[in-house]
Amino acid sequence: MTNNILINELMADNDNTIPDPAGEYDDWFEIYNPTSDPILLTDKYLTDKPDQLSKWKFTQPDLYISPGEYLLIWCDEDSGQAGIHTNFALSKSGEYIAIVDTDGASIIDSITFGQQTTDISYGRFPDGASSWYFMDDPTPGGLNLQRSDRKSV
Known about the structure:
By secondary structure, the protein is an all-beta fold. 0% of the residues lie in helices and 34% in strands. It is built from no helices and 13 strands.
C-alpha cells in the first residue's frame, strides 16, 4: 500500500530512547507519508482495538502530513500534554494498531505486532516497505536507516 499514509515504526516499551514533550518515556509510533501529496489527518482515527476503529480521533484543525514527512504519535493516555497523544498505550507483549479513515470504518493501514524488546523499535525497512524489522537504533520521526538481522513479516 503506497497510495496513503502508513504506520512506519513503533516502540511499545520506551524506557530510555526518546522523551515526549513532558519528559516522559512513553510508547510511540510514527506515521509516514510516502506519497507526493500532502494528506489531511484531521478527522481520521487511530486505534489499538480491531473492534473499536474510531477509538481516537485527530481533532487538530488542518493537520496535514506532507510528502515524505513523519509524524510521531505518543501512546500514553495523556491527551492533556503537548504533542499528539492517544487515549491508548501500546502493549510490550504485542497488539494491533491501525489508522482509520474519516468514516470510522475503512482501515488505511494496520499492523499486528508480537513481543517487543525495551528500547528496540519495530519498523518498515526501507521506509514504507512491506517488510518489518527490529531496529537497535530507533529513528522516531525520521528515516529508518538501519535494521537488525531479526526480521518479522
